Amino acid sequence: MLGLLAEQAVLFAVPLLVFQRTGSVGWAGMAFAVEWLPALLAYPFAGLLADRLGGRRLFLVANTARALVLISAALLCALRPHWTVGVLMAGSGLLSLCMAPVRMAVEKTTPALAGDGALSRLQALVQNLELLGRLLGPGLAALLAHALGKLPLLPVAACGFALSALCWRGLPGTQPVQADAQAPGHAAADLVLGWTLLWRNRPLRLLAGVGFIINLAFAVAVGANASVITGVFGASDHVFGLMNAAAGLCGLLALRLVPRLPGPQAMARLGTAGYAVLCAGMAAMAWTHSVAVYAAAFALSIGGAAWFNLFNRTLRVQAVASAHLGKVIGVFYLVQYLPFPVAGLVTAALGPTLGVQAIYKGMALLLALPGAVLMLQVARGAHDALLPRPDAPAAPRAAVAERA
User: Which H/E stretch holds residue 292?
Assistant: First the structure.
């Protein structure tokens, strides 16, 4: 939870600092792209590390590194103010490299902690914590920024990452692989195996496609929200913080409305309903001329995304044997989060000329047409993938154990 609050503080501070220093939505979009590209390259390797080192150990190392990066960035910005934009962009890239191991550590540890039949409930708890962090983080960040300034948020977030690492020291570790599987040649074979398992698992492959489209739309919105709120609508940065807090609250309430899901069909219906809600929210953001409607539509979209992501988390973990979870989820994350740097580049290239809301309209159409077709196929094929099954034994490297 502390790490999530720290992430939200950084996400609040960095876009505003870059936009206010440069006054350019193009620079803000470029910073967003730099923030995500290293993570994309790191995800497959982070998945291998999660399988080999175990989730707890990987989490401790990555969060300690994040704390050191933020302390260093804060010191450089304070000592050399004219370096601020460059330091923030470089620091965002380093934080991005550390984010991939943290996500893979959580993906690896969550199924190991879940008892029989408890996976969907534990995934809902993890997502509730993420949404609670999204709810509290921007509000706390806005208060701290008002009292201390935006730059001091960086060392405050560093303390959050360090404390988060300390909290994980008491968790049981997942079993790492044998030492003879850690040679460089085996790493290349594991990467190939991860891509092969993902491609031959049709429900997971389609789910990655849906996630790609959703994240492309929302990456544009998240990367441009600060400039839309403070630039297009002329509102204060406090409104930006309140909007993010309201979005977190909406997502949390959406999950609280979810009853115990009796079976795979109910989970698939939940994912489909969430997709429909976030499509409606994106469309409203694209065509509105009111900051209040924009903020409400963004919050509504986060609520729909909460339902979809619960379905997403459960399906992708249930469809992969635990022995190969890190390998497959690492490349799955690469596909799902590739839109983030792409969206930053699109915003940087088209935002200054077309306007951000024109890009939103294209994203809304993308969600409503090809995205909806893919989502219906995912929902139809989710039943078999979500059926409880014992883990398959570890497959030989040349074999593929997943179902097509």
Answer: helix 291-318
Q: Are 76 and 19 in contact (CB under 8 A)?
A: no
Q: Model-level pTM?
A: 0.67
Within 10 Å of residue 81's Cβ, how many Cβ atoms?
11
Contact 237, 402 (CB under 8 A): no
The answer to whether the beta carbons of residues 251 and 131 sit under 8 Å apart is yes
280: nearest Cα among 263, 260, 269, 296: 296
User: Which CATH architecture best describes the domain 2-172+182-386?
Assistant: Up-down Bundle (1.20)
Whether the pLDDT of residue 116 is over 80: the answer is no
Q: Which two tokens stand for residue 88?
A: 């923030």
CB 188 within 8 A of CB 97: no
pLDDT digits (tens, 9 = 90+) for 131-142: 666 666 666 777
Is residue 316 packed enough to be buried (19+ CB in 10 Å), middle (13-18) or exposed (0-12)?
A: buried
Taking each continuous run of H as one helix and of E as one strand, the counts in the chain are: 15, 0
Grade residue 280 by pLDDT with cuts at 50, 70 and 90.
very high
Answer for the pair 100, 37: CB distance below 8 angstroms, yes or no: no
- Whether residue 16 contacts residue 240, with contact meaning beta carbons closer than 8 Å, is answered with yes
